[in-house]
Amino acid sequence: MNITLKEFPEDLHLSLRRRAEAHGRSLNKEVLTILEAVVNPVQRSAKDLLTDIEERRARMPHIVKESELNDIIKEGRQ
User: Residue ranges per domain, the chain?
Assistant: First the structure.
């Protein structure tokens, strides 16, 4: 199926093209990917989201703890 978009803003076209290049996709595939994510978003449970967050944190080299924040802010201001 083909869809024609009329009066498509040139700056939006350029943004989509750049985004497609950054993701290694064609312009058409990028638009379809965006539309799919918006129209049919993946529903994840809170438990799945927390598991994903924990796994990502475990792969990070260092996580700043709340107790370290003041020292880091002070160091950055010096």
Answer: 10-39, 46-77
